[in-house]
Amino acid sequence: MTLRWILILEGLLGAACGTSPDPRPATFEVISLAVLAPACATVACHSSTTNVQGYAFDTLDGARGALRQLVRAGEPGQSKLIDVITSRQMPPDAPMADQDVALIEEWIAAGAEGL
Questions:
Q1: Domain assignment of residue 17, yes or no
Q2: What pTM does this model have?
């Protein structure tokens, strides 16, 4: 990972802490790197190493492949990803933050650009 991406991620993760409106853009890169990778791409779950259920979220290419199967662009309510994270099935060790779920829903509703 380049220094540029590390700095972008640090800024995005820092911005996600707190209660103010989410300043993160609802983009494929932010959803993949700042939301799904830390929550889902652990070695025991959805990484390139384990590939549980055929999904890997630790790289942009892996996330793109997984999200193409889990997301119905323009329809968050019809997307398996939203079903799984809002039912609190995943991630299994801690529910995803509401702000992260809202960002994913916004991205899907806007057409899931980047897939």
A1: no
A2: 0.79
